Automatic annotation (TrEMBL):
Short name of any one Pfam family annotated for the protein: STAS
Family: Belongs to the anti-sigma-factor antagonist family.
Upper classification of the organism: Bacteria, Pseudomonadati, Pseudomonadota, Alphaproteobacteria, Rhodobacterales
Domain of life: Bacteria
Protein name: Anti-sigma factor antagonist
The STAS domain, residue ranges: 21-110
Gene3D superfamilies: STAS domain (3.30.750.24)
SUPFAM superfamilies according to UniProt: SpoIIaa-like
Length: 112
């Protein structure tokens, strides 16, 4: 699982550099994000700009990440591609997560 984690303006940005979050990488994804956000600030933005596919295991891994961060930290999603956005909409997870069109929009919203 290739990802980049950095902190800007009291926001932790987790950028996924994979085309898929599926059963093959779900456990690695959860562990990598968990390890990378141990000392993260209160706001964590998951940048999914490069992810073109999420299956039920991937969705479960993202939800597990949200639960791991709570209640001290909040997971916000950004940059969902149309296929990934469709999965979130069909499963109604779009009502569970705060979702922003772009990473820049998410960062701007966190700074307000």
């Amino acid at each position: 699982m290739e990802l980049q984690i950095k902190t800007e303006s009291d926001v932790c940005i987790v950028s996924i550099h994979e085309s898929r979050i599926d059963a093959a990488v779900a456990l690695d994804f959860k562990e990598a994000v968990r390890q990378g956000t141990l000392d993260a600030p209160a706001e964590v933005v998951l940048d999914l700009t490069q992810v073109g596919f999420v299956d039920s295991s991937g969705l479960g891994a993202i939800v597990a990440t949200m639960k791991h961060l709570a209640p001290e930290r909040r997971l916000v999603l950004a940059g969902l591609t149309p296929p990934v956005e469709k999965v979130f909409r069909l499963t109604r997870m779009d009502s569970v997560f705060q979702i922003h069109l772009t990473l820049e929009d998410a960062l701007r919203a966190q700074c307000e």
